[in-house]
Specification:
Structural class: alpha/beta
CATH class: Alpha Beta
Mean pLDDT: 88
Low-confidence stretches: none
Number of domains: 1
Largest sheet: 7 strands, mixed
Protein name: Pantetheine-phosphate adenylyltransferase family protein
CATH superfamily: HUPs
GO molecular function, one term: dephospho-CoA kinase activity
Radius of gyration: 21 Å
Shape: globular
Length: 411
């Protein structure tokens, strides 16, 4: 594979504490803008993985880790919001397979803490826990090779960068020209008194079967936030030992059937169901797949493609992803009793209520509903409000309209 076609990596240091939209902007907008400007290509699409060092997992044992879902998804939502604004300002397309001048960006949370220390003879290996979030050694062992690696030019950024390089040693061959420093932002962390134990944020339950639904046409940051938020709720079982094979957790994604989309604006540019379902699985593979050889062997996620149902498994079959077709507002939620949790957005909140009413009428337990944050894609530097809301530029309908304007670019 040509190195230019490989994804690039941006390592972001620990987020501000406490987390706020303004603090996140100050910390992450400068490095995101710099990295996106450097990976954008006029000749072809590019890929960028944004890995954020996040000390958000808690628990003494590897297979009993917990996290605050509210905090985790808020962080992911904030970063995708900044990405959307910056891409709009730089004329960068955000959708998957967007062609020239587009950057397919994925935000990955990496379990890491500045207090962690590794022995001189430490060698990383893939040791996933029971959550979708992996630690820095596992990330260094399973995600490579890269086109370029961007590090943030701040003290915290340098610390994260050096930790990563140390853990990647022996796994990857890196050239000096691949390592690029980018502008850093301002990160504030309010220190707590050492005499008062730090209170953990409320830890969220996890579930063996999680569901969400959507069209996922021209997969963009809003879709990626939803899919990531659902993955954060998965209770991933321990990998099997010997002949033992655990029952996999299941992530069920209802993907709207083509018939339901015929009345959409620029419907002739809507991607076929099969394309949309594949893109969902390929995106989730970036969060869930762990390969000792990285992706340098050229292998791509295997999908079992049946009519109206695409299935893929990850992490030694401990995670199963199902994309199923649906033609009404309920989708798989009223057909699969084992589903326990449902992810919704502000736009689909009413659908979540309808789903639970239907399940109760069937004598089933209602689902626990989780609502993701709104993707805050506004230019905060535009004080007089004269600039348009950048969120309109990353909607599927706008992407279809742009393709219609260019002509002849149907998928």
């Amino acid at each position: 594979m040509n190195r230019e076609d490989l994804p690039s990596l941006l390592l972001l240091p620990y987020p501000p504490n406490p987390l706020s939209c303004d603090a996140l902007e100050a910390a992450y907008r400068p490095p995101l803008r710099s990295a996106l400007g450097k990976v954008k290509r006029a000749s072809a699409a590019s890929k960028l993985i944004v890995a954020v060092a996040w000390p958000g997992l808690h628990g003494q044992f590897l297979y009993s880790k917990t996290l605050s879902w509210t905090d985790a998804q808020a962080l992911v939502a904030g970063i995708y919001g900044i990405l959307s604004v910056v891409c709009a300002q730089l004329g960068i397309g955000t959708e998957v397979d967007g062609g020239p001048n587009s950057v397919d960006t994925t935000v990955v949370l990496i379990d890491d803490d500045r207090a962690k220390r590794y022995a001189d003879d430490f060698r990383p290996s893939i040791t996933p826990n029971n959550t979708a979030i992996i630690d820095m050694p596992t990330f260094a062992s399973a995600f490579f090779p890269w086109n370029r690696i961007f590090s943030v030019r701040t003290e915290l950024g340098f610390q994260v960068f050096q930790t990563y390089l140390r853990l990647a040693e022996g796994r990857q061959t890196l050239l000096q020209k691949q390592l690029v420093h980018v502008e850093g932002g301002l990160t504030l962390s309010m220190a707590k008194s050492s005499t008062v134990p730090a209170a953990l944020p409320p830890q969220s339950p996890s579930y063996p079967v999680v569901c969400l639904g959507g069209t996922f046409d021209y997969l963009h940051p809003g879709h990626k936030l939803l899919l990531t938020a659902g993955a954060l709720l998965l209770r991933i079982p321990r990998m099997g030992a010997g002949d033992y094979t655990p029952t996999p957790c299941r992530y069920i994604i209802g993907v709207t059937g083509d018939e339901m989309l015929r009345n959409k604006k620029f419907a002739e540019y809507v991607q076929p169901w099969e394309v949309r379902a594949r893109n969902v699985i390929y995106f989730l593979a970036q969060l869930l797949e762990l390969r000792p050889r990285g992706w340098k062997d050229g292998a791509r996620t295997h999908i079992d493609e049946q009519p109206g149902k695409f299935t893929a498994t990850f992490r030694e079959r401990t995670i199963e992803i199902q994309c199923v077709i649906f033609q009404d507002i309920y989708g798989p939620t009223v057909a699969i009793r084992e589903i326990e949790a449902l992810i919704v957005s502000g736009e689909t909140r009413a659908g979540g209520r309808a789903v639970n009413e239907k399940r109760i009428s069937q004598g089933w337990l209602p689902l626990v509903v989780y609502e993701v944050d709104v993707l805050d894609a506004k230019d905060k530097s535009d004080e007089d409000g004269s600039t348009e809301n950048f969120a309109t530029k990353i909607s599927s309908s706008t992407i279809r309209q742009q393709r219609a304007a260019r002509g002849g670019m149907k998928i």
